[in-house]
Amino acid sequence: MILKRDSLPLGLMLGLLGPVLGLVIVYFVKFSGFEFLEFLDLFIHTNRLITSIGSLSLLANVALFTIYINTHRDETAKGIFIFTLIYGIAILVLKILN
Fold this sequence. Notes:
By secondary structure, this protein is mostly helical. It is built from 4 helices and no strands. The radius of gyration is 14 Å and the shape is elongated.
């Protein structure tokens, strides 16, 4: 199975998609009364939501990273960690510029 491989490209793909999936889950659980584009606009322009929703969406990567580290698939975990840092820095920059 592809998810059992240990490769940096797999980790980068998972690290890229994890927070997006986390963001979609937050949308459906908490903000389903809004249109998705309205939710994204609210997320991007509200400092309080940038922090809370950004952190919740990164939890998907934390879970993936933990799974891959505990199963000794370090290359995949490295890719997930790289994108976690990129998303974290992007959230920080977005919060500062807002």
